[in-house]
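User: Modeling request: complex.
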Amino acid sequence: MRIAVCQTNPIIGDIDGNKEEIKRLYTLASGEGADLAVFPELSLLGYPPLDLVEKREFREYAEKASLELAEHTNSNTGLIFGSLHEDNDNIGTNIFNSAWFCHSGKVQLIQHKTLIPNYDVFDEMRYFESAKETFVVEFKGRNLGISICEDIWNDKDYWKIRLYPEDPIEKLMKKGANLLINISASPYSYGKREEKHEMLSRLAMKYDADLVYTGCAGAQTDLIFDGASMCYNRKGELLGLGAFFREDFFLIDTESKASSIHPIERDFAEEVHDALELGIKDYCRKLNFKKVLVGLSGGMDSALVVYLAVKALGAENVMAVLMPSQYSSGGSITDSVKLAENLKINYKTISIEPVFQSVTDVLQPAFEGKAADITEENLQSRIRGLYLMALSNKFGYLLLTTGNKSEIATGYATLYGDMCGALAVIGDLYKTDVYRVAEIINRDEEIIPREIIEKEPSAELRHNQKDSDSLPVYETLDKILKMYLEENKELNEIGELTGDPQLVRRVLSMVDRNEFKRKQAAPVLRVSYKAFGYGRRYPIVQKWSRK
Amino acid sequence: MRIAVCQTNPIIGDIDGNKEEIKRLYTLASGEGADLAVFPELSLLGYPPLDLVEKREFREYAEKASLELAEHTNSNTGLIFGSLHEDNDNIGTNIFNSAWFCHSGKVQLIQHKTLIPNYDVFDEMRYFESAKETFVVEFKGRNLGISICEDIWNDKDYWKIRLYPEDPIEKLMKKGANLLINISASPYSYGKREEKHEMLSRLAMKYDADLVYTGCAGAQTDLIFDGASMCYNRKGELLGLGAFFREDFFLIDTESKASSIHPIERDFAEEVHDALELGIKDYCRKLNFKKVLVGLSGGMDSALVVYLAVKALGAENVMAVLMPSQYSSGGSITDSVKLAENLKINYKTISIEPVFQSVTDVLQPAFEGKAADITEENLQSRIRGLYLMALSNKFGYLLLTTGNKSEIATGYATLYGDMCGALAVIGDLYKTDVYRVAEIINRDEEIIPREIIEKEPSAELRHNQKDSDSLPVYETLDKILKMYLEENKELNEIGELTGDPQLVRRVLSMVDRNEFKRKQAAPVLRVSYKAFGYGRRYPIVQKWSRK
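Assistant: Request completed. Predicted assembly structure:
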C-alpha cells in the first residue's frame, strides 16, 4: 500500500486554513497515486485546542469542516485526519478526539481516541471522553487499525508501569488489523524521539504489522512538535522518516525495502537549537509579528537568544538594545556590539543612568532614609524592562525574554524587569545547557564572542556582583534542580545523593518561594521532560518546602 | 448520633500544622462527647495540593501523619479526615484522594473518592485514580456511607446532564447506609451555595438518610472556600450550618429538631465582599506578609481594593500611593486623599512627571521622530508600576493589583504597569459589579467618596481620556463578556442575542488577542463560575476568533 505521510503544522483554531492545507496535500497525494493520505492528531483544529473545545460553535464549525473534507475525497485515495466528534448520551463531555477515515466522498469510520492523557502538559480528560469501541476497517485489501497518539503508548510488554488498564492496539490486532496507523501530536522533549522509535519498531515486530506513525511539526506557543513521522514494516524496520522540526510530505510503500535511515536524535545542542529556532519562528508567524527585540546584557543568555532570533527571523528582523549602567563592565558593551556586528543586526545603546537617577531622586523621600538594597538592583532591571517595552510598543516589535531555567527556578530574575517579554526562549535550558548550545554555534566561526562565553556570569546590578554571590556554582545548582524538577526527587533523596542537605534545602526553598514569579512569567519554550509553565502546577501559597 | 463538624482552614503542604489542628479539634470534639468528628476533603494536605501529590516524599509524609492521627483516636469518638492513599498495582497513578475513618487507635476504613473532577479549576485526574469499590461501615449502631466531594454531585434524579456514569451515593445506599457523610473542598462561586443546599436536602429526603456535608473555609491563592458545612435530617431539613467564609466547629445531633436557619446566599455584593476580604487575608497570612500596598488612581477599582485590604488586614497595615501626572484630574488626588483619610491609612504622593520626562528624553533619539501613541500611555502606567514595586521591595509590603474583570478581559490594562502586583483582588468582578459592591460599603456612612463612585471611568493616560473612548459602555460590555466567558456562548449566538454582531466580534477579538497579557497576570480571586486563571485555559497563539 502506498501511503502519503502529511506532516503538517496547523494553526490552532484556524479551521479554514488547516482544512485548505489538508485538501491541498490530499490532492497532491492522490495525484501521486497514494492509496492513503494520513495527517496528524487534531490536524483540522491544531493541537492543543484547550478550552476552545468547550465552545459549541467551535465544535460545530469543526464538524462541518470535517464533513466537507470527507466530501472532497475520491475512491482511489483514503484520507485520515484528526478532528473532534460528539455524541449525546448526556453523560460526560460527549466529545471525542477522533481520527476521521474517509474516501469516495464519504466518512467511512470515525475512530475515537481510547487513552486520554492527563499528565504534565496534557489536559485531555478535561475535554475528551474515551472511545467505547475500536474498529478495524478494510480498505484496498488491507485491514486498517487506526489509533490516536497515546493509544499506542501502553503496550504491556514494553512498559513496566502502565498508565491505563486497557490497550487499544492489542484490541485492534485481535480484530485482525494488519496495518496500524497512529496519528499523533506529541510535544517534543529531548530524548523522546529515540524512545518513540524503539517502542514503535518493537510494536511492529511484535504484531507482525506495518505501522505508520504521523506526527505534526511546528510550535504552538510553548509546545514544540518535532515532526519525525515514522513508518515501519512488519519486521520493525524503518521505511520512512519525516523531517525534524519542519513540515514534510512523503510517500512510502509498505512493500518497499527498508531504508538505511535511522531517526536517532542528534546531539542535545543541535536538537535544542532547532527546536528553539522553530519556537521563535512559529510564535511570530502565527501571531503575525515580523520583528523582535532583545536586550543584550553582554552575558551568555541574551547572546544565545538574539542568535536564535536571527536564525528564526533573519538579521533584518531583529533589533538589539544595549542598556548600560554604572555597574556595567566595559566588556558588556564592547562584547555586545561585537555580537551585534557578527550577527549583522541593528542595535541601539541607551543608558539607564539618567532614569535611574531620576527615579531614585523622586523616591528618596518615600524611602525614609533606608539603605540601598535589592530595591535598587530591581529598579535597574525594571528600567531596562521599561525601555524595552517602550521600544516594543513604539515599533511593534515583539520582545523576547532571555532568562534561563536555572534563574527562573531560583527566582534569580526580576519580575517586570528582565522577565518582561512575550516568549521565554531559553527558559527550559539550565545555565550549563546554555553553554552547550553556544559551543555548537561557534563551531565554524566565532559568532558569539569568546569573551561572552568565558566571562563569569553576573547580573551587573551592583559593583563587582557575580551570580555566585547568590547562587551555588551552576554545575552544582543545575544538578540539584534537575533532580528536583525533572526527576521529582525531594529534599531527603537529593540531600543524600549530593551529600549536602543544607544546600539542597536552600535551593529547594528558593524554587518553591519563587512560584509567584513564575506565575507571571512569559511562556517557556519546552524542550525538556518537565518545563516551567503549563506542565508544572504548584500552589503559590503552600508550606511544604518550609517544613 | 452526635457529630462534630470541623470546618478547618488548612495551609497547603503544611502537613504538620494541619495535623495538629485536626488533633486539637478531635480532642475538643471528644471532650464534648461527640460520636464522630468530621473534617473536610484532603484536610491534612490542604486543597488543592496540585503537583505536590506527584512527590513521593510528600506522599510518604502524608501517609505517616495519617497513621499518627489514627493512633491518636479513642473508642468513643470516630475521626474522619481527608488525606491521600496509595496502592501499587502498577497501572495509573496509584494514588487516591481518600477519607480516612479511624477510632480506637486504628484505621477502620480508607474510602477513596470515586468521581474525580477534571473541569474548570479541577485537575484531579492528573493525580488521583477512581475508587474501585465503596464500603459501608458500621459504627455505634449506624451504617456510615462516606463519600468525598464530587461523589455526591451526580444524582440521576437531580441532574439532567451528568458528568459520570456511576453514582457512588446510590451504591452506598444499596449497601445499607443510613448516615451519609460527605467531606468536601468545593471552591466558592456566587450562586453555588444555594444550589448545594437544594441538592443535598433533596438527596437526604430521597434516601431517607441523615446527611453531613463538611466543607473547608479559607482561601488558597486564587480559590476561596466558603465553609458553610450543612447537616440534614432524613426529611431533608437543616440541622446545622457552618459559618460563611471562616473556620467553624459545631456539634449536631442527628436526632435533634430541625433548626430554623437557612443557608441562603446573601446579596451578591455582601457575599463577594466577604469572599474577597478572606482572599486577601489568607494570601497574606499564609505567606507571612503583614502589610500591603495599593496604588490609588482616584477611580473606583483601586478604591474598592484598598477598602477590602483595610477590612482584611487593618488600617495600620495598608499603605496607599498616589502617583499623579499631568493628565490626572484635580479630583483624582483630592478624592484619593479623602478616601485614605476616611480609611485612616497612610499614603504617599509621588508624581510620575519627572521620571516620565526623563524616560521620554532618553528614549527620544531611539523613537526616531515617531509621534506619541499608546507607548507614552503605557509608559506612565509602567512608571507607576516601577514606583509601587520599589516601595514593595523597600518596605516588604505586598502589592495588590486593582484591575477588574472587564479590563482584564479586554486587555484594557498595561502589562508590567497597572497589572503589577501579587494578587488581583477584584479581577473576577466586572466593572458593573465593582459598583454593586461599592454601594454596600457606603450603606451606613460615606467611606468611598461619592465623587469616586460618580466620576466617569478613565485611565487618565492622556488629555480628557475616557474608558468609553476605547470600550463600549460597561453595561453593554459586561453583558457580552458574561455570555462569552461564563456562559460559553460564541460569536453568532451573542450577536443574535445582543443584536449587534459587529460589536460582539470586536469585543470577542479583544478578549482573545489579550490572552498573552492574562498569561502574565497575577492570580485572580475567584468568585464567579468562570474566572481568569487556572480554570480557564486558552492558547495564546490561535486564530479562532480571527476567522
